[in-house]
């Protein structure tokens, strides 16, 4: 198992994978060639939903410009709890 984690870390260092660190110590790897997206994370079951929102992206650019910054990259994680009463991944 240590070898698997070592390889994942090497792929992350090489830019092949992206590692996302979520609250609760959970890390998720995804292939780095995906288009930019943000994440919704359920704190009860750990479900991660990827989403894209042009309005959020535009607002972040406006905020950076207002503060005389040019964004090079960013990460957005929104945390909450499933509200449908049927979490996909409730811990056993």
UniProtKB/TrEMBL annotation:
Its main location: cytoplasm. GO terms for molecular function: DNA-binding transcription factor activity; transcription cis-regulatory region binding; zinc ion binding. GO terms for cellular component: cytosol. The keyword DNA-binding applies. It is found in: Cytoplasm. GO terms for biological process: negative regulation of DNA-templated transcription; negative regulation of siderophore biosynthetic process. Pfam families: FUR. Keywords: Cytoplasm, DNA-binding, Iron, Metal-binding, Repressor, Transcription, Transcription regulation, Zinc. The keyword Zinc-finger does not apply. Belongs to the Fur family. NCBIfam families: PRK09462.1. PANTHER family: FERRIC UPTAKE REGULATION PROTEIN, ZINC UPTAKE REGULATION PROTEIN. Homodimer. This is Ferric uptake regulation protein.
